[in-house]
C-alpha cells in the first residue's frame, strides 16, 4: 500500500536503464574570423578526419551483429519444438484437423468451458506463459479460482475489466472508466488493487479530466507484472494446477485405451 513498490524489479537497474547517456561534444574548429582566429587549415583537416573516422566506426557497429546467429537459431528451434504439438499442420490432432476435414469438433472442444471436455494438451499450454493462460477462457477461469484462494482475485478482475474497456464503443467508455475506478482504485473501493501512489495519482487525474479507454494503462501493466512475477509462478507450482493437469492426463489415457479396444 502507499508508495511501496511490490514488483520484483531491481530499482538500481531500472534507474540505469532510464538514465540518459551523456554524449561527448566534439569541438570543431573554424579557420579565420573572430570565432577562432588562431586555427590553421591543418588543424581543421585533423578534425574532419576525426569525424570521418567516427562515422566509419559507427557504420561498422551497424554491420556488427549484437546477437550470435547460433543463439537466435537455438531460440527459434526451441520455440517451434515447444509449440509443434499445437500446430495442426505439423501434428495430427485428435479430433482431426478441421482445416483438412469437415469435422468441426476441434473448434467446439477448444471453445468449451466444461472442465470435463478440456483436453490435456490445452492445460499444458497454460504453463508456457502467463499470456497463454490469460488467452484461454478456461485458463482464466481456473487461474481466477486460484487467485480467490490466495485473496488476490481482484488483480485478475481489474486486468480483465481494463481489457474489456479497450474494446467498448466510445459512447460507453466514460461510464465504464468511472465504474472501474470506483470498484478498484477509489477510496473505499469494493475490490481495491495494490498500486503505488504515483500511478494512483496519475490515473485519478486522467479519470477526472479526460477519461479514455487508455487511462488505466500504467495500473494495468503494474498489476500484470504482479501476476506474472508472483501469482503465476505460484499457480504453476500449486497442487490445484497439478491435480487439474493430472486429471486431464487420466482422461486422455482412458480415451486412448477405449479407442485401441475399438480398433481391435
TrEMBL record:
Domain G protein gamma: 44-104
GO cellular component: cytoplasm; neuron projection
Record keyword Lipoprotein present: no
InterPro entries membership: G-protein_gamma-like_dom, GGL_sf, RGS, RGS6/7/9/11, RGS_sf, RGS_subdomain_2
Plastid found in the keyword field: no
GO molecular function annotation: GTPase activator activity
Superkingdom classification of source: Eukaryota
GO BP term (any one): G protein-coupled receptor signaling pathway
Domain RGS: 129-245
The entry's keywords: Signal transduction inhibitor
PANTHER family per the UniProt record, alphabetical: LP21163P
Protein name: RGS domain-containing protein
Species of the source: Lottia gigantea (Giant owl limpet)
Organism taxonomic ancestry: Eukaryota, Metazoa, Spiralia, Lophotrochozoa, Mollusca
Amino acid at each position: 500500500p502507499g508508495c511501496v513498490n511490490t514488483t520484483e524489479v531491481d530499482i538500481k537497474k531500472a534507474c540505469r536503464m532510464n538514465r540518459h547517456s551523456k554524449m561527448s561534444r566534439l569541438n570543431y574548429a573554424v579557420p579565420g574570423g573572430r570565432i577562432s582566429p588562431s586555427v590553421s587549415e591543418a588543424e581543421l583537416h585533423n578534425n574532419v578526419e576525426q569525424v570521418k573516422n567516427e562515422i566509419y566506426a559507427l557504420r561498422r557497429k551497424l554491420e556488427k551483429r549484437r546477437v550470435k546467429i547460433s543463439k537466435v537459431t537455438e531460440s527459434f528451434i526451441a520455440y517451434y519444438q515447444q509449440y509443434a504439438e499445437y500446430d495442426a499442420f505439423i501434428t495430427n490432432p485428435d479430433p482431426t484437423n478441421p482445416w483438412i476435414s469437415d469435422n468441426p469438433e476441434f473448434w467446439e472442444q477448444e471453445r468449451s468451458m466444461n472442465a470435463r471436455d478440456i483436453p490435456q494438451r490445452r492445460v499444458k499450454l497454460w504453463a508456457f506463459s502467463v499470456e497463454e493462460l490469460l488467452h484461454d477462457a478456461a485458463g482464466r477461469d481456473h487461474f481466477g479460482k486460484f487467485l480467490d484462494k490466495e485473496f488476490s482475485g481482484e488483480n485478475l478482475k481489474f486486468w480483465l475489466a481494463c481489457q474489456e474497456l479497450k474494446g467498448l464503443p466510445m459512447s460507453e467508455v466514460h461510464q465504464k472508466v468511472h465504474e472501474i475506478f470506483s470498484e478498484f482504485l477509489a477510496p473505499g473501493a469494493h475490490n481495491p488493487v495494490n498500486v503505488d501512489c504515483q500511478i494512483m495519482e496519475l490515473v485519478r487525474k486522467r479519470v477526472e479530466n479526460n477519461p479514455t479507454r487508455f487511462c488505466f494503462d500504467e495500473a494495468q501493466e503494474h498489476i500484470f507484472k504482479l501476476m506474472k512475477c508472483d501469482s503465476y509462478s505460484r499457480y504453476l507450482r500449486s497442487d490445484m494446477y497439478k491435480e487439474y493437469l493430472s486429471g486431464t492426463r487420466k482422461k486422455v489415457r482412458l480415451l486412448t485405451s477405449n479407442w485401441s479396444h475399438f480398433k481391435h
